[in-house]
Automatic annotation (TrEMBL):
Pfam families: Methyltransf_14. GO terms for molecular function: methyltransferase activity. InterPro entries: MeTrfase_14 (IPR013691), SAM-dependent_MTases_sf (IPR029063). This is SAM-dependent methyltransferase. Residues 41-139 form the C-methyltransferase domain. One of its GO terms (biological process) is methylation. Keywords: Methyltransferase, Transferase.
Length: 144
């Protein structure tokens, strides 16, 4: 949310949980959220540890993350609308920049055909009229 990272919202990355929502889900199933570990992957992820209710003490990290989420008002409508507005602005700014570069006769190309880049291109409606081509050096997966 803080970094407006919408490019990782694709395919297998379509669930986004707060510590608050994980704690509530766990409680409904006889479990406790007992630990959280922040990971730097994709701009920030959280690993959640659950245990049977009452089996383990909650770490301080859980309380800290819950307090941080509350302070950031992650479930407030204005927070979610603000994220939406930033995503829309990022899309509009990127498309405007690409159109300007093309109108100046410049060719724009892409390097790295990642899932994130595909998400951005698809969401922004960017095609060959704005980016001439995308290349990647990753060998194809020829499993099977």
């Amino acid at each position: 949310m803080r970094q407006t990272s919408f490019d990782q919202m694709y395919d297998e990355h379509f669930y986004y949980f707060t510590a608050r929502s994980v704690a509530e889900m766990a409680r409904r199933h006889g479990l406790d959220l007992v630990d959280v570990e922040r990971l730097a992957v994709h701009g920030g992820e959280v690993r959640y540890t659950l245990a049977r209710a009452g089996a383990r003490e909650r770490t301080a990290a859980v309380g800290e993350l819950l307090a941080e989420e509350e302070a950031a008002e992650l479930t407030a409508r204005h927070t979610l609308e603000g994220f939406r507005d930033r995503v829309l602005k990022a899309r509009d700014d990127l498309v405007s920049l690409l159109r300007e570069l093309r109108s100046e006769g410049k060719d724009v190309v892409g390097y790295g055909a990642t899932a994130k880049s595909a998400t951005v291109l698809n969401y922004c409606g960017i095609g060959p009229e704005l980016i001439a081509y995308v290349t990647d050096t990753t060998p194809p997966n020829r499993a099977g």
